[in-house]
Amino acid sequence: MKEVISTVKEVKLIADNVYSLTVTLPEPVGEVRGGQFLNISTGDSSRLLKRPFGIVKAEGCDVTVCFQVKGGGTLALADARVGDKLSVLLPLGNGFILSENAKNIVVIGGGVGIFPLVPVICGNKDKKFYTYIGFRNKGCACLLDEFEKSEKFTVVTDDGSIGEKDNAVNAYLKDRENVRADMIIACGPPVMLRALKTQLKDKGITTPCLVSLEERMGCGIGACLVCVCGKTDGSRARVCKDGPVFDINEVEL
Ligand SMILES: Cc1cc2nc3c(=O)[nH]c(=O)nc-3n(C[C@H](O)[C@H](O)[C@H](O)COP(=O)(O)OP(=O)(O)OC[C@H]3O[C@@H](n4cnc5c(N)ncnc54)[C@H](O)[C@@H]3O)c2cc1C
Ligand code: FES
Q: Which tens digits make up the pLDDT trace of 147-175?
């Protein structure tokens, strides 16, 4: 993990209220695992805390993240100009560690939770991915070409404007008989992850499942305890340092 001053290379609108931001670091990024994230300053000096985003692409000295504008920090980032300097801390967190024996991976993503899943699919050529992605509507859909690299790819929307009117968890469960899953990985809003946990339990599905959590963060490096989440054994974990990826049965959702 290192902290460097990056230079904004590109900011681009890729869906309703969603931007892709590429920054150039002074040195090559090195290896990044899908699900790892970075913490980036917003360029607005009134906001001291950096903001966390899943790394979508890391190539040479360039790193790309995609983000939805939520509040002041992401609004400032959407306004960044080519050449602006932003401080970046990376790579952070554990990322998705796929077991070597798992060859067929089911990928479930919802909304902005799809972003950390992209490098998993692009970076593990020895695996087959069966991907189920859900958006609110057509206007929110993005990066579909990245997910099309999967062995099988299904996109659904809440209103049916692309694919069936459904959510990503249901889309997988309906197709479950057609897919041999050695492992499931998922990232999305808490309601999606909760539904996944409940459904897996109710249906007696014991396939190992990893989920990436999103908590409000401060330092991003395990020091401030802003991001703690509850574990099912009663202990607590720091999402930034111990996660953000956990076994679905290990954490309270
Ligand atoms: C490990 C990790 C990876 C993430 N990856 C992405 C990503 O790839 N793309 C993306 O769009 N977003 C991602 N997020 C969420 C993103 O960090 C927040 O949306 C962002 O920090 C909000 O900053 P803001 O200043 O615009 O909003 P604020 O003004 O700080 O808050 C505005 C709203 O955003 C919500 N919010 C703030 N922080 C978070 C958070 N950490 N998670 C969820 N909601 C939050 C607040 O509850 C509030 O409703 C990630 C979060 C984590 C922890
Ligand atoms: S954000 Fe500070 S400990 Fe996780």
A: 999 999 999 999 999 999 999 999 999 99
Q: Ligand 2: does its nearest atom lie under 6 Å from the Cβ of 58?
A: no
Residue ranges per structural domain of the chain: 2-92, 104-212
Domain boundaries 2-92, corresponding CATH code: 2.40.30.10
Give the C-alpha separation, 28 to 139, whole Å: 34
| pTM given for the model | 0.96
pLDDT value at residue 45: 84
Q: Cα–Cα distance between 203 and 96 in angstroms, integer?
A: 24
Provide mean pLDDT across the span 182-193: 97
Q: Which ligand is nearest to the CA of 222?
A: 2
Ligand nearest to the CA of 220: 2
Q: Which CATH class is domain 104-212?
A: alpha beta
Return the number of other C-beta atoms located less than 10 Å from residue 7's C-beta. 15
Please state the atom number of ligand 1 nearest to the C-alpha of residue 47: 25
